[in-house]
Amino acid sequence: MMSGDQRSATSKKYQGGFFSSIFSSLFGTREMRILILGLDGAGKTTILYRLQVGEVVTTIPTIGFNVETVTYKNLKFQVWDLGGQTSIRPYWRCYYSNTDAVIYVVDSCDRDRIGISKSELVAMLEEEELKKAILVVFANKQDMEQAMTPTEVANSLGLPALKDRRWQIFKTSATKGTGLDEAMEWLVESLKSRQ
């Protein structure tokens, strides 16, 4: 997590099931709309299914979208994973309405396209329908030796210059599951404190 101080994400296996259902029955469940966005090949779909089923599933490039419901810490998320290919990105804005948070996934090894990733992020954050959305950036593929650090990713995306938006960046590996739990904890707390 980075925002002033940076620390390495520790991995815990995503825990749902029994405790989540008890928590939900005691305190109720509120559904939140989350978009998972980022360029093609960043790991968006792997993250979605890692959060939903707790393991890596075989994925193919998303043409269009995947939508799943994920329950975490008494919050029910309707998670929209939108394809990141060049031809699909213009359609992202069709899904912005009523979005509570955006998980923006960056391939930390893809130095050649970090500028494109920044351009897409900047354009997205300028959209009126996302003005109040919380931003969580996953600096993904951190298990790879050539990965940029979360600080490098944050600076390349221009995150420190963001004003009037709650954001955080996390060091993640979708395939290993590292950093996802910490990121979801932060997101849940941020959404709860906003209400």
UniProtKB/TrEMBL annotation:
Keywords: GTP-binding, Lipoprotein, Magnesium, Metal-binding, Myristate, Nucleotide-binding
Keyword Methyltransferase among UniProt keywords: no
InterPro entries per record: P-loop_NTPase, Small_GTP-bd, Small_GTPase_ARF, Small_GTPase_ARF/SAR
UniProt cross-references to Gene3D superfamilies, sorted A to Z: P-loop containing nucleotide triphosphate hydrolases (3.40.50.300)
SUPFAM superfamilies the record matches: P-loop containing nucleoside triphosphate hydrolases
Residues in the signal sequence: none
GO MF term set: GTP binding; GTPase activity; metal ion binding
Residues binding GTP: 38-45, 84, 140-143
Residues noted as binding Mg(2+) in the record, renumbered to the chain: 45, 62
Family: Belongs to the small GTPase superfamily. Arf family.
Function in brief: GTP-binding protein that recruits several effectors, such as golgins, arfaptins and Arf-GEFs to the trans-Golgi network, and modulates their functions at the Golgi complex. Plays thereby a role in a wide range of fundamental cellular processes, including cell polarity, innate immunity, or protein secretion mediated by arfaptins, which were shown to play a role in maintaining insulin secretion from pancreatic beta cells.
Subunit details: The GTP-bound form interacts with GOLGA1. The GTP-bound form interacts with GOLGA4 and RGPD8. The GTP-bound form directly interacts with ARFIP2. Binds to SCOC, preferentially in its GTP-bound form. May interact with UNC119. Interacts with ARFIP1; this interaction directs ARFIP1 to the trans-Golgi membranes. Interacts with ARFGEF1 (via N-terminus).
PANTHER family, per the entry: ADP RIBOSYLATION FACTOR-RELATED
Protein name stated in the entry: ADP-ribosylation factor-like protein 1
Gene name linked to the record: arl1
